[in-house]
Amino acid sequence: MSIRALIVDDEQLARRTVRRLLGEHPDIEIAGECADGASAVTAILEQQPDLVFLDVQMPELSGFEVIRRVGVDRMPAVVFVTAYDEYAVAAFDANAVDYLLKPIARERFARALARARHALAAQLSVEKLRSLLAALQPGASGEYLERIPVAEDGRILFVDSDDVAWIAASGNYAQLHAGGRTYEVRETLSSLEAKLDPRQFARIHRSTIVNVRRVKEVQPWFHGHHVVILQTGERLRLSRYQRAAARLLGVS
To answer: Got the DSSP string for 2-29?
Structure first.
């Protein structure tokens, strides 16, 4: 598998070192170099590399700020490069594959690259499996999901739909609340809603779907709204505009 790598560092010598070390690995294609954080953000969004060697300390825009600008969900795999080991914990908190201390040793660089290959291969396997599962999921046949696949730590978990109490929108993701845990599904709320049995799952708000079997009671609230109280004690708002959900919950 060929890997496209972007080098981001404000020091020319550091960029040259990373480029030279990458040149020893024929499966790596260098997508480009950036000398500052702002150009790195543009390059990542436009070129969509697989891997970024990202300097932590850069003027105006640090490596961590680059990630925030791009967005965690859109960032490729990251190997941080820094002259200070105090950033190691923060690097892993940012879900970095690895971090390298300057001056970069060849052996240490090779280990970081091996970790990146492993992470990218695992991600690819998950994406392939997710595509296969999507192809097998219910569509126009009138059948609905009984088990929801969730990618977690390079594996696929299956959550029984009956165990899901409610689902929340989180950008382009959906968060399943089931059994005291929260699972993140790489799917929009609307897309997931179309695969769930409408007799069991009701969209009570533009950002919320509820499993009606997990509803304990519904109480009136202000201005025509209602509060849906789950068996867990969680309280969710029922929008007055969600008439189908209101009928399913027996609210007039």
So the answer is: -EEEEEE-S-HHHHHHHHHHHTT-TTEE
User: ∠196-122-110 over CA atoms, to 5°?
Assistant: 160
Pairing type for strands 215-220 and 226-230 reads antiparallel
3-state secondary structure of 138: coil
Q: Is residue 142 part of a domain?
A: no
How many structural domains compose the chain? 2
Question: What is the value of pTM for the model shown?
Answer: 0.53
DSSP assignment letter at 187:
S
Per residue in 204-219, pLDDT tens?
888 999 999 999 888 8
Q: Sign of torsion, CA 48 53 55 59?
A: negative
Q: Which two tokens stand for residue 157?
A: 């978990």
